[in-house]
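ESCALATION

Customer reports they have been waiting on this structure for their group meeting. Please prioritize. Original submission:
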Amino acid sequence: MQSRRDALRALSGFLLSSPLLRSDEYNLDPATATLKDLFNVWDFRDLAKKKLDPVAWYYMVEGAKHELALRDSRLAFNRLIIRPRFLTDVHKIDISTKLMGMDLASPIYICPAGGKPCFRQNGEELTARGAAASNSFMITNGGIDSFLASGKGPKNWFQLTTGAHLRNQNTMEDFVDKLEDQGCSGICFTVDIMHVSHRERSIHNRFVRSWCETGIPRDAAGKLIYQGGQVAWTTDVFPGRPEPTPTWDSVRKLRELTDLPIILKGIMTAEDTE
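Update from on-call: job pushed to the front of the queue and completed.
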């Protein structure tokens, strides 16, 4: 009769070999893999992990605090069920849509994610080029002015602001005038970034926020390089600010200055939504 230890060993072997737990089952080679080898978002994730600096990788995949919201979001997404309907003529499929007055080729858009240069030099512009090529809606973190000036930029794009452009009437007017001159489609104001988030992986990795724009600096031995005055990520910092942070009155003034659509990113309560 098989012992309990043997049974546990057999179960462990089964679980470890199960495709459900193997994130790199297909052993994608970063040197040779092409788009034809990537079939879902997890394939892209696994290949990215092999190609990126580990510090950059953990910055990308982490969530704030204990990552409870990240976990719950993943579980909630897994609970979504697609109800297939059959015997419908699908020889021509149109997934285009209209959003805030914009005609989009698909309902997929590029969200306002900063730090792209951390993963690839000139990452923001490369992303904008992809958005233009696919006629996708993009919310940019900035740094694509030259590409926009070339006339080849995305047809539909919003500019992100974290509030620095809303310090006073003059900065707000300059911000709006520039966007309107560039043909911007709208403004995305991130409202939940007034303090440095608690990112435990980046804290453990002694990640420096400026690396989001410069990439991960390492010396010939592979050790991280810290410049004078650089401070590694720390927990729940409320940085000193020379001027008050934006308020609902700032949003009202911004609304009065432009007819561009405005998105408030980060609203989390019904009261703020109202």
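Sent to customer with the following note: The two ends are 66 Å apart (CA to CA).
Escalation resolved.
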